[in-house]
Amino acid sequence: MAEEKKRTRRANGESAIYLGKDGRWHARVPMGYKDDGSPYRRHLTRPTRKELVDEVRRLEKQRDEGSARQPGKPWTVAKWLEHWVENIAKPVVSENTYDGYEVAVRVHLVPGIGRHRIDRLEPEHLESLYRRMQSAGSKAGTAHQAHRTARTALGEAVRRGHAAKNAAALAKPPRMEEDENEVEPYSVDEVQSLLLEVNKRRNSARWMLALVLGLRQGETLGLRWSDVDLANEYLKLRRNRLRPKYEHGCGEAAPCGRKAGYCPDRVQVRRETKNTKSRAGRRAVPLPGPLVVMLRLHREAQAQERAAAGNLWTESEYVFTKPLGGPLSPNTDYHDWKRLLEDAGVRDGRLHDARHTAGTVLMLLGVPDRVIDQIMGWEPGGAARMRARYLHVTDPMLKEAARKIERAIWGAPENLAVDKDQDNEA
């Protein structure tokens, strides 16, 4: 009798299934342990034993795979996103990446899907949000930013056991229109027009670094003279200039009533630069001779500005500064670019389009891919993808390809002329 009882005893981790006094089938499924070390079991109930067994097996599979919901009150989407962006993402991502996450969470995701329980969020909830965003005037790119943020945040929730699936990974973001991100690099003629106008302006070398070498805005504005070796005609890229972020300094007793960035006593709360994270980003870039000349003249002009400003000069060691020293603001730099395009009579474009232009010119000149990757700062693993994105096949390149095909198949142009004469005689 004792042996029979021993055989019917459940093994550790085995679920208990029984018929309750209410006529329904019940199960207690061991799921692990709570934070205090006590056992954690999930209670399930179904009208038939078969239904219950199927549900128990599904839950046991989730438990064994580590994807089952953990004990405790389930997170709402809003609470999880707010926790994730401030406590998980913020300490490990760059300031600019955090800003993008924070805006997507605060402006779009929390108001749109925040009330759902995280373990009950479905892809359709997100797809409905994207449609509402576009109906309210948001571009597809904005919805994509919200989608990428949700996918990253919910992926972390799944890894930690707060949800069984990543609803954002299953959701379909809105289609990006082909012309929305289409970039047309500036032609050689347009670059030459910009060069003529650039020579009339302060900080002229700043724009040629973008158009000729494809330096990013942060890389250019973060350059210091210690990074530039004019004798050996190269510069080293080691850091990026960050967008300033301000808080009020006026105090609650006498608030200025303006936004923090326009407060007369504003306080800068973000560091000026950050070191380049990737190995490909930390690179040496060769300087063409004319650009070396421009940088020499720029250094002399900066020395004259320093002398004229006297005690008003803010020493910073940056290559490109404000008229009284100190680092250039990325926002000011952006508006200078727009004025440059207008004054040069060149079509409007993003500042980042200059980077596409530089990469395309390097390809047009036949520079080897490996050298292009070095100059542009692309990681070896993703260089091919970045070349496909940044290097554009221009009309002159297509025409040259057509001429090569013509010479290879039909022969030299003079042979074509002879063939035409013979046809006319016939």
Can you describe this structure?
The protein is 50% helix and 10% strand. It is mainly alpha-helical and 426 residues long. A hairpin with a 4-residue loop joins strand 4 and strand 5. It is elongated. The termini are far apart. The relative contact order is 0.07.
Strand content: 5-15%
The secondary structure category is mainly alpha
Please compute the radius of gyration using only Cα atoms: 31 Å
- Arrangement of strands in the largest sheet: 1-2-3
For the residues shown, what is the average pLDDT? 82
Low-confidence stretches: 1-9
Tally the beta strands: 10
Q: Could you give the distance between the termini?
A: 115 Å
The portion of residues assigned to helices is: 40-55%
Helix and strand sequence: HEEEHHHHHHHHHEEEEEEEHHHHHHH
Shape: elongated
- The quaternary organization reads as single chain
Largest sheet: 3 strands, antiparallel
